Amino acid sequence: MTVAEPATAARVAPPGFTHDQWAQFMEDGFLVIEDAITPEEVDRYVETIERHAEERGLVEPGLSVAPQNIVEWDPLFAELIDHPRHIGYAYDLYGEQTKLQQSQFMLRPRGGSHNIWHPDGARALPYPVFSPVLPLQLKFGYWLTDLPERRMGNFVCVPGSHTTQYQPYYDTHDDVPGQQILKCKAGTMTLMHNALWHRVDPNESDVVRKNLFYTYSPAWVCNQDRWHSDPNWLAEQTRERRILMRSYGPPYDCAKPPASEFPLYLDRDTASDRDEGVYPAHVQLLRRKRLTFAEKMMGLPHDRPGGERPTLRDND
Fold first, then answer.
1. Looking at the predicted structure, is the pLDDT value of residue 26 above 90?
2. Integer angstrom CA distances of residue 286 from 5, 186, 264, 292
3. pTM here?
4. Which among 133, 211, 117 is positioned nearest to 166, based on CA atoms?
5. What per-residue confidence (pLDDT) applies to 84?
6. What is the mean pLDDT of residues 157-162?
7. Inter-CA distances, 156 with 180, 196, 204, 252, 270, Å
8. 210 closest CA partner among 85, 64, 37, 23
9. Where are the beta strands (DSSP E) in the chain?
10. 188 three-class SS
C-alpha cells in the first residue's frame, strides 16, 4: 500500500562543494574562498554589526566581543541562516538533519583577547572520538575586514591537524611549525572542520577585526547558543529557516524530526525528494535514509535491495 504524503514547498539544494574543494577540505580541514561576499554586502554586514554593538553597549576599547544567537536580532542576520552562499556546503555534510548550531559576530580590537590553540567542540571526549573523519561542526567565517598582515587578530591554524586529537601546543599561544596565518581581504569566506587546531593572533593594529560566524551540525548535536528560539520570531521565518533552527518541543525530535520537516531540500541533481530505487513505495518520506554528498564522495558502503553493496571508489 502506498502512503499519501503531504505536498511540500521544498526547494532544490543550493550549490555546495565542488570535487576540488571537497578534496582540499578533507586534506586541510579548512577552505578559503576569496571574493565570496560582494563589497556592498560587506558594507551591509559591517553596518548592522556596528549598529547592534553600539545599541547593546558592547563597544569598549580593548574588549573583544562575540554575542551569540544573533539571528534573532536582525533580519539581515536571519537571512544568513539559509543563505545560498554557504548552506549548500553544510547540507552536503548533514543532509536532511542539517541544523544551525550557533550564530555570532565578533569584534576584535587592539589589545582584545585572543584564543589559544584548541579544536572546536567537546574537550574531554572530542567529536573525532565519535566521528573520526567527518566534522560534527562545520563553521563558516565571513571576513569583513582587510587583514593584509599578521598581528591583526588573524586566524591561525595548522592545515591537516584535524586528523589528530593530541597536540603538544594545546593551551598555548606559541607559533608552531606548519601553521598558516590567514591574511585575507574583506569579502573572504572560510569553512572549518571542528577538529582543526587553531588559535587567534593578537591584534596590535588600529583595525578592529569584524566577522560573522555561522556553525552547522547534525540536528542531534547540542546547540551552542540557545535552548529554543523565540516562537514569535520563528513564526516569521521561511520554511527552511524554521527547520534549520530545529526549535522542537520534544527533545528527541532533534533525532527524529517530524514529517513536516522532510525534505529540507530536494536533490541538487535530480530535484527529487528521495533516492530513487532504494525503498519500496510504501516507505514514508520521513523514514527514508538519503545519501549525502559526503557519503557519495567518500564511497562509503551502503546496503542496497538484494544485499548488494557498492565498491569503494577513489575520490579524485
1. yes
2. 10, 41, 11, 15
3. 0.92
4. 117
5. 98
6. 98
7. 6, 10, 15, 37, 39
8. 64
9. 11-12, 30-33, 98-108, 138-143, 155-157, 180-181, 188-193, 198-200, 209-218, 265-266
10. strand
